[in-house]
């Protein structure tokens, strides 16, 4: 084998740089320990949470989503205080306002023009009838109408020529009068519905309802799921198997059906309860309505399974680690181990899953409200507003689009933020 | 086995590979060179993070972003591998050079049978071969690597094989196209010690039979002693010592090599002898220190070691080491020669 | 395999039993009885009902009787909406429409979703990937009713030019009638499937056996379509079950918006009208269907993944 090895000159240094190095004997003196440790540049050590927060801040999409959520919170909770209308207040005379209006002067001009058109039509019809000597038949009337119409001013052209534009926000004529008289009237930013209720305020309240429901439902699910999952995961063995079988059973139940079923079943009972007295609990029941209560009940009964599965998975992983064995060796009780050692390590997962449950709850609530089995009047929700707007979609299209967009953006923001959280807390999962 | 010509099977010259991560450039390999002749077995030794796997991946063109070869050359039988286009690379991989990996448990596709995957490897480079012939050849390979019941085994799925057997299958898959070079990236690390020995035996036997060259990557010097002809010791992306296996084991010339040898448990050690570990922690490849990368952990560290990279010193018969101690020795010898 | 199938089937049956019992018990908690429509029925009616449903007996017996009737296909008659018409007949009439819309929706959602997901994974990091991810994230944030109503508003709105698809469902109109409902119903599942497919494709592409495949000298298409895809599809199958369930429940909204004479819309109406026999019967029927579908998907999943061993004495 040795004949394959190249032979180089013994003792040669490659490259032959010794003369260029200018080495002195001091260079070959031994180095001290401090000099050696100085070589390592210390990277600032960060705690897990600092690291995660730093990663989260860098995620622009997630930060924007958080900003949007914050705006929503302002919209939903501070907004109604700024708008002088209430969500269930009928305002006579302001029914069916569009989110735009013409100023009083422009209205007068337009009226006069169309008015002249009407007069001319009546004149022409009378004249034709007199000429004919008998009643006009429908074809003749239609012909005359068409002639007049074509000789009418083209409204759009007219508007352009006379610089008549739509102005933002909805006002009824009466309100415009009051403004002209110097009173300050808050605009109907999104118009009013057929009862004269200001739509923007209703949207704000609807958003508030959706958010509160989402967060409360998510918290409910968190508590039940975390407790169940940690017990199941920690206990292991037969207990775990049985508990997970139960989870499988629940998982295969069609959730929406159960919610609907529950609300139907609970309605009479809750109504009876509501009417039974005047206490705070009854009021609360009355406020929420049986549908909402069954939504919470169903959520609490069914939706905790995802959280339970995730927590159980985490616990199963963690409990094999040495710090748990150490705790046991020190005599810690099971409850304490779960509470102080295992659950804190799951916090990341818990936070992310909870955050992602919120949009699910909002989704479900709006879905049900749309169908009419969600919140009950007079409480409003974005879903029920969309449902109400469905009939008049051709004339009042915006009444459908605006709540739809609001709810979609809300769900989107929670989803994006939840995703960002997950990426920040466990970057290994990042794809 | 004698070499067929003066060309080397594989020549790596001053290879540099870096990973351009968001945190900065990680210089995984900073200029390594070695040569492998036909039928030779070269061991590449180093700890995790030393860059040994990275350089192997570069040979096969398997580097994935953000990794890039930023300098140097790799020639196989005189051809520049780094300049291959896609078709040439596909012809090269699995056919002229094969690679087997560390974790046999995950390296086989779980949804296809062993037979399917073996035949696939063969037909990728031999399009004209018939199905029946390919099957026959696949079964031959399985027998060659020591698997029994080949008929039955061909139709089984990877999860029905044990770890050691899966690695045998990997070897069979690697050799089915009769490559001239096999790159083995820590093939025994994930296996039990007894299985390790069996696999090594198998590889030795196959190497002798086929005359192929092997680049054997490992962190285990015991394995190196078993199978390798030449050794390159890598640390922090550089080769710190290189030579024939006997030289490395009996005349180690670099403190790192010496440290590795000292920290190995020995069968013939006295009961009271303690293992002597290498102190310190591996290098942070994002901010490698100037000077010799091993200096902070070296008990013989000198002032110059912390300031300048040591050059290579030839110690005879292909044995070289990059260490200021050897330079110092060399300078002292020269002085003596002058004076003497 | 047989043992596994039996086990799964048993589980499915048990779930169905639980659902049926739960439904019955819940409906029974309504004051009065679910079977009575008038406030003061005649004695003959009461006797007949007692006979059939055991209303004078304890709840457990009533449950037993209900389940017995159920097994024979008797779900009672509609009390409010179509007086005295057997519920099972109503279901038989309305279900096929819902099923067809649901089927087409799930079909296009799965096919398109998987394709887009794999495309995105293959072009990871490039503009196509980013675009698809944005679209799918928005898609799963829009509740079905939002999509359905927006489609309705667009295609039934004032702009005549857009009236290409009918917004009121009429099976006689053929393919066109299905477009909008299936589009609305399938959008959410498609986006979800695409995300899943992308994620599991990326997972598969990062596996060691892909490294081996490349080292063997295989070409890219082979690596992707032969090696990665099959492994990536396996997790996608697990989503098929919930997808089918969703197709039914999302159907409630779609049928309402597009006036489809299907079981979903009828179900919602029966809830609003408190027609209890219909509510019970439809719930159990839908639940049974979903459970059955889940069972089949489970079987499918286990057949496709050879790692799952159902022979005795295996690994």
Oligomer: heterotrimer
Helix fraction bin of chain A? 55-70%
Q: Which chain pair shows the most residues in contact?
A: A-C, 45 and 53 residues
Low-confidence stretches of chain C: 310-315
Count of DSSP H/I helices of chain C: 11
Q: How does the major sheet of chain C shape up?
A: none
Share of β-strand residues of chain C: under 5%
Gross morphology of chain A is elongated
Sequence of secondary-structure elements of chain C: HHHHHHHHHHH
In whole angstroms, the N-to-C terminal distance of chain A is: 50 Å
Count of extended strands of chain A: 3
Category from helices, strands and their pairing of chain A: mainly alpha
What is the alpha-carbon Rg of chain C in Å?
A: 24 Å
Helix content of chain C: over 70%
What structural class results from the helix and strand content of chain C? mainly alpha
| Strand arrangement in the largest pleated sheet of chain A | 2-3
Query: Could you give the count of β-strands of chain C?
Result: 0
**How many distinct helices of chain A?**
17
Structural description of this entry:
The complex is a heterotrimer of chains A (431), B (340) and C (315). With 431 residues, chain A is mostly helical. Chain A is built from 17 helices and three strands. In chain A, strands 2-3 form a two-stranded antiparallel sheet. The model of chain A is unreliable at 1-8 (pLDDT under 50). Chain B is α/β, with parallel strands linked by helices. Chain B contains twelve helices and twelve strands. Chain B starts with 9 loop residues before the first strand and ends with a helix. Chain C is an all-alpha fold and 315 residues long. In chain C, 74% of the residues lie in helices and 0% in strands. Chain C has helices at 2-28, 43-53, 59-71, 87-122, 127-141, 144-156, 175-205, 208-215, 220-257, 263-273, 276-304. In chain C, α4 runs antiparallel to α5 (127-141), α4 packs across α7 and α8 (208-215) packs across α9. Chain C is flat. Classes of the chains: A mainly alpha (431), B alpha/beta (340), C mainly alpha (315). Chains in contact: A-B, A-C, B-C. Chains A and C meet through α11, α15, α16 and α17 of A and α1, α5, α6, α7 and α9 of C.
What's the layout of helices and strands?
The complex is a heterotrimer of chains A (431), B (340) and C (315).
Chain A: E1 13-14, H1 18-21, H2 33-38, H3 48-58, H4 60-82, E2 100-101, H5 104-132, H6 138-151, H7 155-161, E3 167-168, H8 173-180, H9 199-235, H10 237-251, H11 255-276, H12 280-302, H13 304-319, H14 322-329, H15 334-371, H16 382-389, H17 398-425
Antiparallel strand pairs in A: 2-3
Helix pairs in contact in A: 3-17, 4-9, 4-17, 5-6, 9-10, 9-13, 9-15, 10-13, 11-12, 13-15, 14-15, 15-16, 15-17, 16-17
Chain B: E1 10-21, E2 24-36, E3 41-45, H1 52-60, E4 67-76, E5 79-80, H2 86-92, E6 97-100, H3 114-123, H4 131-144, H5 150-154, H6 163-175, E7 181-185, H7 193-210, E8 213-218, H8 221-227, E9 230-235, E10 238-244, H9 245-250, H10 255-262, H11 303-307, E11 312-314, E12 320-322, H12 324-339
Parallel strand pairs in B: 3-8, 3-9, 6-7, 7-8
Antiparallel strand pairs in B: 1-2, 1-4, 4-5, 9-10, 10-12, 11-12
Chain C: H1 2-28, H2 43-53, H3 59-71, H4 87-122, H5 127-141, H6 144-156, H7 175-205, H8 208-215, H9 220-257, H10 263-273, H11 276-304
């Amino acid at each position: 084998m040795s004949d394959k090895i190249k032979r180089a000159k013994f003792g040669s240094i490659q490259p032959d740089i010794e003369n260029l190095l200018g080495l002195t004997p001091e260079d070959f003196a031994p180095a001290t320990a401090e000099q050696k440790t100085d070589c390592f540049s210390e990277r600032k050590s960060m705690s897990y949470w600092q690291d995660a927060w730093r990663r989260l801040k860098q995620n622009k999409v997630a930060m924007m989503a958080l900003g949007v959520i914050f705006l929503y919170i302002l919209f939903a909770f501070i907004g109604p205080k700024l708008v002088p209308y209430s969500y269930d207040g009928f305002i006579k005379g302001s029914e069916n306002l569009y989110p735009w209006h013409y100023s009083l002067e422009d209205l007068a001009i337009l009226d006069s023009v169309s008015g002249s058109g009407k007069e001319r039509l009546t004149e022409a019809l009378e004249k034709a009838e007199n000429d004919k000597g008998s009643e006009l038949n429908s074809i003749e009337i239609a012909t005359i109408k068409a002639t007049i119409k074509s000789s009418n001013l083209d409204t759009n052209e007219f508007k352009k020529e006379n610089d008549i534009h739509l102005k933002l926000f909805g006002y009824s004529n009466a309100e415009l009068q009051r403004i002209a008289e110097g009173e300050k009237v808050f605009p109907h930013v999104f118009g009013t519905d057929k009862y004269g209720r200001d739509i923007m305020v209703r949207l704000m309240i609807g958003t508030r309802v959706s958010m509160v429901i989402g967060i409360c439902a998510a918290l409910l699910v968190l508590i039940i799921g975390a407790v169940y999952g940690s017990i199941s995961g920690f206990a292991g063995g037969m207990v775990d198997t049985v508990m997970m079988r139960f989870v499988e059973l629940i998982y295969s139940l069609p959730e929406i059906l159960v919610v609907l079923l529950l609300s139907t079943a609970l309605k009479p009972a809750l109504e009876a309860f509501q009417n039974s007295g005047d206490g705070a609990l009854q009021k609360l029941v009355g406020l929420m309505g049986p549908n909402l209560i069954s939504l919470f009940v169903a959520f609490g009964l069914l939706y905790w399974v995802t959280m339970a599965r995730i927590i159980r998975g985490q616990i199963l992983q963690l409990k094999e680690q040495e710090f748990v064995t150490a705790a046991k060796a020190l005599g810690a009780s099971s409850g304490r181990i779960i509470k102080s050692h295992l659950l804190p390590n799951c916090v990341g997962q818990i936070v992310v899953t909870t955050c992602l449950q919120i949009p699910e709850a909002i989704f479900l609530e709006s879905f049900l409200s749309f169908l009419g089995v969600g919140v009950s009047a007079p409480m409003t929700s974005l879903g029920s507003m969309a449902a109400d707007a469905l009939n008049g979609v051709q004339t009042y299209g915006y009444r459908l689009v605006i709540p739809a967009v609001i709810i979609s953006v809300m769900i989107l923001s929670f989803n994006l933020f939840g995703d960002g959280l997950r990426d920040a807390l466990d970057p290994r999962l990042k794809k | 086995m004698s070499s067929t010509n003066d060309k080397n099977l594989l020549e790596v010259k001053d290879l540099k590979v870096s990973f351009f991560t968001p945190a900065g450039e990680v210089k995984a390999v900073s200029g390594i060179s070695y040569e492998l002749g036909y039928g030779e077995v070269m061991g590449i030794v180093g700890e995790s993070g030393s860059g040994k796997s990275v350089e192997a991946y570069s040979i096969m063109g398997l580097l994935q972003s953000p990794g890039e070869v930023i300098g140097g050359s790799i020639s196989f039988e005189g051809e520049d591998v780094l300049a291959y286009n896609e078709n040439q690379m596909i012809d090269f991989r699995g056919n002229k050079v094969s690679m087997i990996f560390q974790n046999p448990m995950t390296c086989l596709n779980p949804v296809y049978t062993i037979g399917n995957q073996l035949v696939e490897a063969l037909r990728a480079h031999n399009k004209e071969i018939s199905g029946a012939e390919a099957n026959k050849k696949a079964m031959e390979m399985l027998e060659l690597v020591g698997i029994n019941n080949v008929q039955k085994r061909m139709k089984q799925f990877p999860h029905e094989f044990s770890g050691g057997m899966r690695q045998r299958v990997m070897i069979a898959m690697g050799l089915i196209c009769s490559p001239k070079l096999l790159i083995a990236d820590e093939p025994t690390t994930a296996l039990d010690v007894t299985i390790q020995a069996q696999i090594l035996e198998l590889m030795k036997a196959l190497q002798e039979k086929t005359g192929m060259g092997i680049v054997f990557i490992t962190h285990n010097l015991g394995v190196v002693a078993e199978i390798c002809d030449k050794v390159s010791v890598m640390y922090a992306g550089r080769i710190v010592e290189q030579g024939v296996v006997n030289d490395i084991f009996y005349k180690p010339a670099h403190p790192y090599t010496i440290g590795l040898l000292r920290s190995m448990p020995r069968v013939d050690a006295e009961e009271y002898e303690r293992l002597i570990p290498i102190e310190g922690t591996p290098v942070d490849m994002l901010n490698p220190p100037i000077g010799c990368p091993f200096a902070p952990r070296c008990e013989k560290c000198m002032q110059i070691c912390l300031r300048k990279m040591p050059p290579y010193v030839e110690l005879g018969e292909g044995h070289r080491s990059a260490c200021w101690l050897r330079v110092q020795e060399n300078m002292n010898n020269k002085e003596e020669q002058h004076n003497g | 395999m047989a043992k596994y199938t039996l086990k799964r089937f048993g589980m499915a049956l048990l779930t169905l039993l639980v659902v049926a019992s739960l439904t019955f018990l819940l409906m029974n908690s309504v004051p009065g009885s679910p079977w009575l429509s008038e406030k003061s029925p005649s004695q003959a009616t009461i006797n007949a009902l007692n006979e059939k449903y055991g209303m004078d007996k304890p709840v457990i017996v009533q449950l037993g009787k209900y389940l017995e009737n159920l097994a024979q296909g008797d779900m009672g008659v509609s009390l409010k909406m179509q007086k005295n018409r057997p519920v099972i007949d109503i279901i038989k009439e309305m279900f096929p429409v819902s099923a067809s819309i649901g089927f087409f929706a799930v079909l296009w959602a799965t096919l398109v979703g998987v394709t887009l997901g794999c495309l995105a994974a293959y072009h990871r990091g490039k503009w196509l990937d980013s675009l698809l991810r944005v679209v799918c994230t928005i898609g799963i944030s829009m509740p079905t009713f939002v999509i359905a109503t927006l489609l309705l508003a667009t295609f039934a709105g004032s702009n005549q030019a857009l009236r290409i698809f009918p917004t009121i469902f009429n099976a006689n109109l053929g393919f066109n009638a299905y477009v909008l409902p299936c589009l609305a119903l399938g959008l959410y599942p498609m986006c979800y499937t695409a995300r899943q497919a992308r994620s599991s494709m990326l997972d598969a592409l990062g596996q060691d056996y892909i490294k081996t495949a490349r080292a063997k000298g295989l070409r890219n298409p082979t690596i992707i379509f032969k090696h990665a895809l099959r492994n990536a599809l396996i997790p996608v199958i697990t989503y098929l079950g919930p997808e089918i369930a969703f197709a039914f429940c999302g159907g409630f909204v779609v049928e309402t918006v597009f006036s489809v004479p299907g079981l979903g819309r009828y179900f919602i109406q029966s809830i609003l009208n408190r027609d209890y026999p219909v509510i019970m019967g439809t719930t159990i029927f839908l639940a049974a269907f979903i459970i059955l579908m889940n069972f089949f998907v489970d079987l499918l999943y286990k057949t496709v993944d050879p790692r799952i061993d159902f022979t005795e004495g295996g690994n």
